[in-house]
Specification:
By secondary structure, this protein is an alpha/beta fold. The chain has eight helices and nine strands. Helix 1 crosses helix 3. The radius of gyration is 19 Å and the shape is globular. Pfam families: Rhodanese (PF00581).
Length: 228
């Protein structure tokens, strides 16, 4: 029986990956709230300038110097910044799924018709307002990890997440399915927030983590929104 289950899983995984690959070509239609609290429709996809489509990529072009090889059209260039941080593992918890871009796209598409799903940007508000993934709400990691310092923000976050607090106890029966992200695979903000949510008792299976965050999202040319 174990062998049969394993075989079925192996067969299923390529099918799942194939379904997710659809978003590579179709993108996802979604809604988000702009800085004026107005609902806007948006198409989320890879935004690649036509000049970049037939670019013959070489080792020297991609990996050498300042990532601005003279033969690369300016429309195809982006600044690559190496920064401090702590590289995160691929898995934070046995029951917390790690997402890539296609899984995030599917999540965004599904959450359009549901009120029990949230995409959460865990960075500080100034980062969120500068640029974020369309449809994401902002709950700073500090609102959860530093609840004693920001009690009002903590209570607001609990309400947004669907958590009811009564007599010092937390009721997670209506807790939302959430995807959390921050600046990148070297960013510890969303992992810290996940750690503290788990300590509160948040169901691990309702937590998803987009490890690549804004760094990978923008590196891949995915649609983003600004609030400024």
């Amino acid at each position: 029986m174990k062998h049969l289950i394993l075989s079925a899983s192996i067969l299923f995984l390529p099918l799942l990956a194939e379904n997710l690959r659809v978003y590579q070509y179709t993108g996802v239609r979604a809604q988000y709230t702009d800085k004026n609290a107005k609902n806007e429709k948006i198409h989320i996809e890879r935004e690649i300038d036509p000049k970049c489509l037939d670019l013959a990529i070489t080792n020297e072009m991609i990996w050498e110097g300042s990532y601005a090889n003279p033969s690369v059209p300016k429309e195809c260039k982006a600044m690559f910044v190496t920064s401090a941080g702590q590289v995160q593992p691929m898995k934070l918890h046995p029951d917390v799924e790690t997402y890539g871009e296609m899984e995030v796209m599917k999540f965004i598409k599904t959450m359009q018709d549901r009120d029990d799903m949230l995409l959460i940007d865990t960075r500080m508000e100034n980062w969120y307002r500068y640029r974020t993934i369309p449809g994401a709400v902002n709950i700073s990691h500090l609102d959860i990890s530093k609840a004693n310092l920001f009690p009002k923000a903590f209570q607001k976050a609990l309400k947004t997440l669907g958590i009811i607090q009564k007599n010092g106890q937390y009721d997670f029966s209506n807790a939302k399915i959430i995807v959390l992200f921050c600046n990148g695979a070297w960013c510890s903000q969303s992992p810290k927030m996940i750690e503290h949510l788990l300590k509160l008792g948040y169901p691990a299976k309702k937590i998803k983590w987009y490890r690549g965050g804004m760094h990978d999202w923008l590196t891949l040319g995915m649609t983003s929104t600004r609030a400024k």
